[in-house]
Amino acid sequence: MLNLGLQFFVHTQWIHKLGPLEWVFNTPSHHRVHHGVNAQYIDKNYAGVLIIWDRLFGTFEPEVEIVRYGISKPVNSFNLWL
């Protein structure tokens, strides 16, 4: 139940910024960046719970523009076996 609660929390669009908690914990804003296909958001914000690791290793990117979701390259095949 705790994991489900955490997943609901980080995937919500209703929460924008959480002030000082943004420096330590993975928040919905950080997780939106993780799923974004905007050029500056690719391969960023890997944190599960603590965002401090992304800050330490240079993979942190704050949410500064509206996040676009999807895939960055079109799928060239519908073959399930490739």
TrEMBL record:
Major location category of this protein: membrane
Cell compartments where the protein resides: Endomembrane system
GO cellular component, one term: membrane
Keyword Oxidoreductase: yes
InterPro entries: Fatty_acid_hydroxylase (IPR006694), Sterol_desaturase/TMEM195 (IPR051689)
PANTHER family to which the protein is assigned, alphabetical: ALKYLGLYCEROL MONOOXYGENASE, STEROL DESATURASE-RELATED PROTEIN
Protein name, UniProt field: Sterol desaturase family protein
Source species: Vibrio maritimus
